[in-house]
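User: I'm curious whether this sequence folds into something compact or stays loose and floppy. Could you predict its structure so I can see for myself?
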Amino acid sequence: MRLFTPVKMAEVAKCLRNNLGDEATLVQLPAKNQTEIRIGQSAASGEYQYAYLISLTAQADGTALELRKTDTWFPQLTPTELEAEAKACARS
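Assistant: Here's the prediction. I'll summarize afterward.
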């Protein structure tokens, strides 16, 4: 799913990080205008598995968001719930 919002990237990232809790990891990418929020959990093997990835890209007039899902089972957050959180933060 892709969204665009006039809200600044830092505000969208902060809102998502606060709303998604401990399962969300904020990663600043080397490019100044990009941030990722990775959502997942540790597997029994100790390996961290990501269920969702939210890419945020700052643009002159706001922020572009892209939500992607892996095949990892993640019952704490459904795709519908994640989409609702993203839309709510995009309206902030």
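Summary: The mean pLDDT is 91. The domain at 2-90 is CATH 3.30.310 (TATA-Binding Protein).
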